[in-house]
Structure formats: structure tokens, C-alpha cells
Specification:
By secondary structure, this protein is an alpha/beta fold. The chain has helices at residues 41-52, 71-88, 97-102, 166-170, 172-175, 195-203, 224-227, 229-235, 240-251, 255-260, and strands spanning 4-9, 14-21, 24-32, 59-67, 91-96, 112-120, 123-131, 137-139, 144-147, 162-164, 184-185. Strands 6, 7, 8, 9, 10 and 11 form a six-stranded mixed beta sheet that branches. It has a five-stranded mixed beta sheet with strand order 3-2-1-4-5, with helices on both faces. α8 (229-235) crosses α9.
Length: 262
């Protein structure tokens, strides 16, 4: 009987996955995504199923962090989820990475959390959340890109109860004076969602109302290669216009079609 849920996160520097059943985490793994680190994902999943005495066919649900985050990491996570879901007929869902991180704050009802993660040099992904009556961080407004440092003239962070994320850790000396003393700036240990945070985010998924399609990646900005695309195309002996048209087609194609081009 299919009753397992797989939760995947490949949004930043670490690769994480959880295998869950009902209200319990059966297995969790987490490692630094150094060069070639993402290639360990499929073997690690296979080994986890073997240790548990289970089979991938027992998967009923797969929740994968859809962004915002590292382009390559997100694509690997989402295509792994998509391929596995098709193989075992599991339902799929996308998770908001910044909300997963917001769970790290363990905020009390009514408290505000500001999550800031590195987008690229000079930019951060930012989103505000407020804990509801159950302590669940719910988004207030949209995720936005913030130039950092410095922040744009006139921009104010306000007085959130918590601030966390990789962009805070990378710019702590600059950012700390911009918040009131009442704001708790969480340490770098909160830069990645814990297994408990990923599990909590996965529990919010309304599996009954999903249509079975692949989760849409939450990129929010062009990848670095787009800015240098003409130079890269010419260096490879390609016509920049035709190469750009192919890139646009692939970026708007379903994940399954993207995989077939690799």
C-alpha cells in the first residue's frame, strides 16, 4: 500500500531529503552539495529505501522545494521528483523554500519573520511571514529581490521579531545595525531548514486538490548565464539569436521535456 511521502530540498548549499509516513519521519539525510554532490541524490535515496526495507513503489506523495534558490540545484531536485513521481505514480507538490526556513524561527502566534537568502552577488531573496494561531508562518506579501549591500535608499526593514537566512549570515555586519534591538538575528545554523521544518512545511500540502502536474520552479530572476548568453553562445560557435530562442523554449517547457534534452 502506498503511504510514503518523500520531501526533497536542493535549493542552496545542502541537499536534504526525508522519508515520512503518517505523522513520523522515518529517515532524513543532509549533506553539503560540493562539486558532484547532487550526483549522490539518487544513490542515497536507493540506499535509504533499502535500509528501511521499503521500495520506491510505496511512495504516494513527493514534495520538492521549488525555490527560490540555486538554479542548478532546483532543477536537479525538481527533475528527480518529477521522474520518480512518474515512475511510481505518486502525487507531486512544490514547497516554498523561504517558508521552510521560516519554520526554523519557532515563532509564536503573531510574530513576524523576515527570511533573506542569497540570490547572487549583490541580491537577496526576501519574504515576510507571520505566525498564525498555530505557529505556522504564513506569507505576508510577495517574495521580492533586494539589492544588498547596500539596500536601496529609503528602504526600511521595519521591526520583525526574527531575521534569518544565508543573506543575513553573508552580510551580518552590515545588516545588524539596521534592525532594532528587539529583533532576533538568528545564527548561521538557521540558514538551512531543519528536518522538522521541512516536515512541517510538507504537512501544509493539500494533496487532495493537486492535479498531478509538475510543480513550477520559483526562479524569480534570470540565471547568471542569461546575462552572459551572447558571449557564451559565440564562444561555443553558435548563433546567439538561435541559441536564445532554444533557451526560451527550454525554460518554458515541462521538466520532463527538459530532461530529454540532456
Amino acid at each position: 500500500m502506498q503511504d510514503l511521502t518523500l520531501i526533497l530540498n536542493t535549493a542552496e548549499k545542502r541537499i536534504q531529503f526525508l522519508l515520512c509516513s503518517g505523522g513520523s519521519v522515518l529517515c532524513s539525510e543532509d549533506w553539503l552539495a560540493q562539486r558532484g554532490g547532487t550526483e549522490l541524490l539518487a544513490p542515497a535515496l536507493r540506499d535509504a529505501f533499502t535500509r528501511l526495507g521499503m521500495k520506491p513503489a510505496e511512495l504516494a506523495r513527493i514534495a520538492c522545494v521549488a525555490g527560490p534558490g540555486n538554479f542548478t540545484g532546483l532543477r536537479i531536485g525538481l527533475t528527480t521528483a518529477s521522474g520518480l513521481a512518474r515512475a511510481v505514480q505518486a502525487k507531486q507538490a512544490g514547497l516554498d523554500y523561504l517558508q521552510c526556513l521560516a519554520f526554523n524561527a519557532h515563532a509564536r502566534p503573531g510574530e513576524e519573520i523576515l527570511v533573506m537568502t542569497n540570490a547572487r552577488k549583490g541580491l537577496a531573496y526576501c519574504a515576510r511571514f507571520r505566525a498564525n494561531e498555530n505557529g505556522v508562518p504564513l506569507a505576508e506579501g510577495r517574495t521580492f529581490l533586494l539589492p544588498l549591500p547596500p539596500v536601496p535608499e529609503g528602504f526600511e526593514f521595519g521591526a520583525p521579531d526574527f531575521v534569518l537566512g544565508s543573506a543575513l549570515s553573508s552580510n551580518r555586519a552590515y545588516l545588524a545595525p539596521l534592525f532594532p534591538e528587539t529583533t532576533r538575528l538568528l545564527p548561521s545554523s538557521a540558514d538551512q531548514p531543519t528536518a522538522a521544518s521541512l516536515f512541517a512545511a510538507g504537512q501544509l500540502t493539500d494533496w487532495e486538490n493537486l492535479d498531478g502536474s509538475d510543480p513550477a520552479p520559483l526562479y524569480l530572476r534570470d540565471c547568471d548565464a542569461v546575462e552572459n548568453f551572447e558571449a557564451i553562445s559565440r564562444a561555443q560557435g553558435r548563433d546567439p539569436k538561435r541559441a536564445h530562442e532554444e533557451l526560451e523554449r527550454l525554460m518554458n517547457a515541462p521538466l520532463s521535456e527538459q530532461d530529454s534534452q540532456d
